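Hi R.,

Here's the chain you asked about this morning:
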Amino acid sequence: MRFSRFFAIAALAALPSVAFAGAKAKAPDPLPTIVLTGISQFDGVFGQAKDIQDKLKAETESLAKARADVNTALEVATDSPFETALADLVKKAEKKIGVAMEGTMPKLSASSAVPENVQKGIDAVNGLIGAADHAVSTATGLKADATSLASACAGFPAQVPSLVKNPMEVMSKGKVVGDDAKATTALPDRLGLLIDEAAKIVTDVQAAFK
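And here is the predicted structure, written out as tokens:
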């Protein structure tokens, strides 16, 4: 009994602290990848959270690729911010780019003949706007579920010692549960950051070609 209690206390001490679901993420630092724990009481929540994390990752990568495509099309430095690429496009286009709304999103088009690199830039920016629109739609649709899951898992780490029968597994299981809980509670804020990032892309385009 004393042996089991030692592992339980040690496991709880080793678990990372879990932020409240409503806490704002300080920076988009890498988070643990959510994995199933083998504890049935937790995996219903973590399985759903993993699906959201996977979708968040896919949208983030899609947006990053579309932004990189803009820099490639305009032949600016690959690490240049989007504002720099937009300014370069405005300069190269010499006021020959118009912007119209397609639904709720702006779309660029050449008002007269433009060089090939400018047309490539226009196409790339329109592609980025499409990726931003998709990211906002996806992240907005996931946020309510992510918030519920973040709240649901807040107390999971403290329950590990009572649910894991083998005292030798308490610490290892506790680490997995702690990492999963950390990543799950961060999902609402990460989705919010993606929404903000995508919305800023659209705002920047509108400001550049107003």
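One quick note: The helical segments are 2-14, 40-74, 82-93, 116-152, 156-163, 170-208.

Cheers,
M.
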